[in-house]
Amino acid sequence: MTFIIMDLEWNNAYCRKIDGFMNEIIEIGAVKLNEHLEQVDTFSLFIKAQLGKRLRSRVKELTNITNADLSTGVPFTNAMAQFRRWCGDDTVTMTWGDTDIRVLIENFRYFNGVTVIPFLENYVNLQKYAQAFMNIEHADQIGLSAAAEKLGLNLADYSLHRALDDSLLTVDIFRKIYNPHMLSSYTLPCGEAFYSKITFKARMITDIHSPLVDQGKMVYYCDTCGVECERISDWRVVNKAFRAIFRCPECGQKVRFLIRFKEYYDHVDVKSSAVPFVEKKKLRARQAGETEPADQAEELL
Ligand SMILES: [Zn+2]
Asked: What's the DSSP call for residue 29?
């Protein structure tokens, strides 16, 4: 078993064929480790840009890659063939975050017309693994440098932001958090399900009749009384969330209840919130110091 720790640099370039921008890979760097985590070899190669002939200034600053460097690169297809030979078989590939993999898929699709990455056998999102290892919430994605510092590595020892440098830093992070048993549960075989999942685009569900909308969650319980409130308006879709007015049968309090369903590859995320509801007419009357008109929530929605 060999570990391949890989990092890519890319340049966002306009592409006439798709009439849009895509991240064109311009450099690949990687470190190969044996099962004892000893360094066996390194790989570093510039990829000749075919879409973005000039580097964006941000990429130049961030990576110190120059336009001259790029002209020494080899075309994507050729570079990937070299890399595949270098990787060999029986590998676990790792990257910090899975963006590199998404970008690779995009580039393979565009330049080679294939939807799979030929050298990818098994994959670990090392960022995800590291966060679990260090007990960091999934929501705050930790950067490579921040993780290194947290683990006591001295960043001054590394030159950063070139693909091979970042890979070498990632290797040292990996060595500090290596736990074979835990790692195995983060190692994904790169079959069909892997590609479906990684290329799945999360989306908000805006059709209230979708089977993914759990009707059992479309209810509101009064904050004060704890009883189920009655809905006194129709549901409306506002900013991709469902919204309705509810009234408590006990205390008469009205709230504007919002709930949204976001579909991910293997689950639906549900978030809801409620704010006290005051009818516009009442609000206007109150501001003008007039007597409040009767309830007209229905009419006002
Ligand atoms: Zn109540």
From this structure: E
